[in-house]
Amino acid sequence: MLVLNCSTKLLLLENMLKSHFPESLKVYGAVMNINRGNPFQKEVVLDSWPDFKAIITRRQREAETDNLDHYTNAYAVFYKDVRAYQQLLEEHDVINWDQVFQIQGLQSELYTASKAIASAKLLDLDIKLASFKAVHFSPVSSEPDHSFLTGSTPRLTYLSVTDADLLNRTWSRGGNQQCLRYLAKLIACFPSVCVRDEKGNPVSWGITDQFATMCHGYTLPDHRRKGYSRLVALTLARKLQSRGFPSQGNVLDDNMASINLLKSVHAEFLPCRFHRLILTPAAFSRQAHR
Q1: DSSP-derived 3-state class of residue 48
Q2: Confidence class of residue 3 from pLDDT cuts 50, 70 and 90?
Q3: What is the SS3 assignment for 274?
Q4: Is the distance from CB of 223 to CB of 212 less than 8 angstroms?
């Protein structure tokens, strides 16, 4: 195991990962954020340098953690050889198996490879897998049309940390204190876009996560079919692209409204799928949130 701390090598790694798109996108996004202030206190672990075969991004060991917070206790994975990834998992201090955490990646063996090592270590873990279509936005060369937002309201702007409670209540993965804290941190650290009504309340929004992924795109039911979701998605994609980030996202197979929206803006559905594993030790199974 090697922890890559050198800023020059981390910049080199960022460029090297581009040649492995789209499978490396999650790790690439994490590395980009590490190289731009590292607001989520991440670090890179790999099997060797520079000829690596497996990379894991993780929370820095000295960072304050909540053992129930799988949102923040998040690992992104990319490997050229799945056996090298498994060998990293086998090492003593690469993964903190004693907390609720998640593993993300865009490679099909992620679940079986991770589960096999957990079983080999005789760990009593509940492992939940969610799989999504992975998408990438085409370059948004011009400012999306928002001329239909007539007058001073509704208006296109960005989210505030004070909006985190609304996002927590409306996110299918939310509804708990860990998620509330996580969403507030995302809003504070990364690009977001929203439409606000005449009272200044968000009615449609999109945010960016710690892996530079567009997520939690949502419009309140009473404000749907007004073009807000399309405007928010394109504006957020353009904002990310202007900062050099890939405009990537994920969508569930049965979310036809979002899939149709993505098709209408000519987003590319990637050949690989996004996989998210949530691993819960038996000791936390009754306490952990979904």
Answers
A1: coil
A2: very high
A3: strand
A4: no
**Structure-token pair, residue 48:** 């060797």
Are 231 and 156 contacting, i.e. CB atoms less than 8 angstroms apart?
yes
Residue 147: what pLDDT? 82
DSSP-assigned states of every residue in 108-132: TTHHHHHHHHHHHTT--EEEEEEEE
| Angstrom distances, CA of residue 103 to CA of 6, 78, 165 | 24, 11, 25
Element (H, E) at 194: strand 192-196
Confidence grade of residue 258 (pLDDT, cut at 50, 70, 90) = very high
DSSP assignment letter at 246: -
Asked if the bond preceding 154 is cis, omega within 30° of 0, the reply is: yes
In sequence order, what are the beta bridge partners of 218? 205
| Pairing between β-strand 125-136 and β-strand 101-105 as defined by DSSP bridges | unpaired
Nearest residue to 59 (alpha-carbon basis) of 47, 72, 46, 71: 72
* Strand 268-281, strand 213-219: pairing: unpaired
Phi–psi pair at 217, nearest 5 degrees: -75, 125
d(CA 52, CA 2): 10
Question: Which region among 121-130, 146-155, 273-282 has the lowest average model confidence (pLDDT)?
Answer: 146-155
Residue type, 146: H
What is the spatial distance between Cα 279 and Cα 290, in angstroms, rounded to a whole number? 11
Cα separation, 255 vs 113, whole angstroms: 28
The whole-number average pLDDT for the span 108-128 is 95
* Burial per residue of 110-130, b for 16 or more beta-carbon CB atoms within 10 angstroms, e otherwise: bbebbbebbeeeeeebeeeee
Angle between helices 82-90 and 110-120 (to 10 degrees): 30
Q: Enter the tokens of residue 124.
A: 């009593």
Distance CA 273, CA 290 (A): 21
- DSSP type of residue 70: T
